[in-house]
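Quick one - inputs below.
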Amino acid sequence: MNEPITMQLNGTTISWSGSPQRRLLDLLRDDLGLQSVREGCGVGMCGACTVQVDGQAISSCLLLTGQVAGRQVRTIEGIGTPESLHPVQQAFIDHAAFQCGYCTPGFILTVEALLREIPAADEATIREYLSGNLCRCGSYNNILAAVKALQSGNYSPLG
Amino acid sequence: MAVGQSIPMRDAVARVTGTLAYAGDIQLPEMAYARVLRSPHAHARITGIDTRAAEAMPGVLTVLTGADLGQQGAPARNYGISRADQPVVAYDRVRFIGEPVALVAAERPEIAEAALQQIQVSYEPLPAVFDPFVAQTAAAPELHANVAANRLIHAKLRHGDIVAGFAAADIIVEETFTSPAAHTVPLETHSLAAQYRDGQLTCWTGAQAPYQVHKLLGDLFGLRGDQVRVIVGPLGGGYGGKGHVRIEPLVAALAWKVGGRPVKLTLSRAEEFVTVTKHAASITIKSGATRDGRLTARQVTMTWNIGAYADSSPLLVSSGMVRGVGPYRIPAVHVDSYGIYTNLPSAAAFRGAMSSQSTWAYESHIDTIAHRLGLDPLHVRKVNLLRSHDHFCTGEEVHDMHVVECLEACTERLGWQQSAKPTAEGALRYGRGMAVMMKSTQATSRSETRLSLNDQGRLTIYTSSVEMGQGAHTALSQIAATAMDIAIERIDLVGPDTARTPFDTSTSAARSTTMMGEAIHQAADLLKQKLCTSAEAWLERPAAELGVADGVVYAIDAPHERLTFAEVVRRAGLTEISATGTAATKHGLDPETGQGVATPHWHQGAGACEIAVDIETGKMKVLRYEAASFAGRVVNPALANLQNDGNVIYGLGPAISEQILFDDHGRVLNDNLSDYLIPSFMDLPGQLRSSCVEDDGHVYHGIGEMTLPPVAPALANAIFDATGVRIRDLPLTPERVLRALTEEMSHE
Ligand code: FES
Ligand code: FES
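Output:
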């Protein structure tokens, strides 16, 4: 049997024993039932599987569970809930920044990280930062508008 | 009034919190998992399959092969929505690389995957053909019995005197345009669960046409309509690729063999590329024009590579014929549209079906004509564009034509006539281009709905329209709220579920808002009448003297005498009052001449852009893109413009990068998103603006596709404007642009 792996998932300590070679995506989605973490490509191109590890947005299809041992993992469930939306989630609604919504949790996690890391990012920087998340429905214009609104409103990333 | 307001999508909160369950998220008790063994040969005879070792593996429930099907009491071996030429699982022959040969059901996906390795299949390879022109030659293998020259479809349109038309022309221009196979790439791959228990088949699937799946499965299994149930949750993108019938027969047949337990199959990204593709097309277009730019004749020959099986191609290749001419008034038109079998995965609808390929041809072509005549391409379009009451080449009178307004909206915002494009600078060349489109929707289709008002005053819409991100359920709720004059918060929506929601042809060709919207209006009118009749006794007046507004029934001569909807239902001693509505169209064309009525209405759109091309690298940057579509009456402006934007971005894919590459054996080389690039934020034009052209009528026009087809020709026209080089093959990759520039220079 493998040594149990411990991580912080959305603020709760999770212990899991299984292969450290298992993809983080499969652990979250299949074993822990977090269906908001979605597979779109499996090769790190689409960002549908985005999670935050120690605050950084990253594709969970490229991570092995062994690599997140002892670290903080955050999924959209750790950002906001239907009862209490995070400002980034609210901005996505206000700006109609999605269609089918398959890419949306991944985008929101990336945008939340962007606004913490580079709060005053200019448009070129925003575009580049978000280019690892794909939206096949083509909601990019409205996502951009949501990000700009968050930048110009009194959204404070840490508050 | 709910119609006309930019309210958020119905389940917006679920979408931003990740709690929305897609088809692929379905979890059922006792669920088993499926994996598919696929053919490594493009064309071969199957000489033997041994599944014993796989079946003996612990955790494997069963293995399905073609040998299981076709006997008494089993599902049929072949299916097809227009022609039953496709095996559910291959039995004697395989016709493309990736064709399903066997299916495993197991306790876990990994076990099913491992079991595939244990299945032994022996093949006797046969000659294969991939090019539709070669496939029509005598030397080519015959892929299906009784289809001479592999030519499954030949749709014809004959209008006017073509000889006289060309004779009247001052110039005649002939060009050939190609577009390659592509993939719709919904981020959610095809996924479905099926269960066969006690003679009852249930399918939970991400399908755009629940009732087509329902009908086909009933036929395949010999079941009555009430023995088949198709339930469709929200889709993680559809774009045509989940239209008609895709992997449902495969999984349902496996569920039948498993017997009792549900089985789920989720396709990998790689499997998507062999499941459905966009038709590769070669279109030769020849036009005559007078010196002042008037079109006198047009002849179009379209060759569509339909792949190994008919699928929806018999319908689509015929639609392609109608969509191939362009929104122009041309006295003489001949079109021949051919659908040819090859040993490649089957082709089907791709957002803007057949219109993308044909718009690429006719909108590039009209710029060539304008250039040869030394005229402004905007002028040449406007001289020829159809207006309401003109006659199209099908002979039908067109109505609600607004292509001119769509085009003008785009060119004015771009400043086509008002401002000059930037001047060349270093290796950068600037150019502008435009394009229009006009697309038929389904000639014959039907949408039904049931509206039910309960004793709490809530209205439920029962509909089989599919929500795939386009906002159909939101738009339909807005229409119902307006038609019934109640608050949108009081509306619920159920469906699609063939056991509960009535018939609808499909959610495709941007038809839902129009057709389902009309069905809702009809049901609402009837429901209001029923409410008035029920209220007669209480308001002591005949129904004709009662009115309905703002959630109440009232006496017209004494508006303070009123009952809420909920009270009407309760006083009638009922828990609900319901009414149904149906919208149907029935049109069609003569098969020999293509004359008749092609569509109940025409979808129309336009685009105009400004680009920069780097002549040293071939790289193009879209600086500005202006898009417009005709929307009739706009239901939700924010969602409508999002559709328009989304179509432009989607259209950039096949325009600049997307194509499925096949090797010499018919194997897909780029079946992953590292090698098959779809548009990212980096491809978003510097400025992208969309608008809807409206009219005062009460007709809703679908807008799910209109701004997409103009993208590729608008870009190619801009490249021509920037560099003088005409590119006739998609996609417009930097390599292709660079090669075209180099060739042009070597000619000079
Ligand atoms: S599934 Fe991980 S990036 Fe696409
Ligand atoms: S909203 Fe559909 S992929 Fe982004």
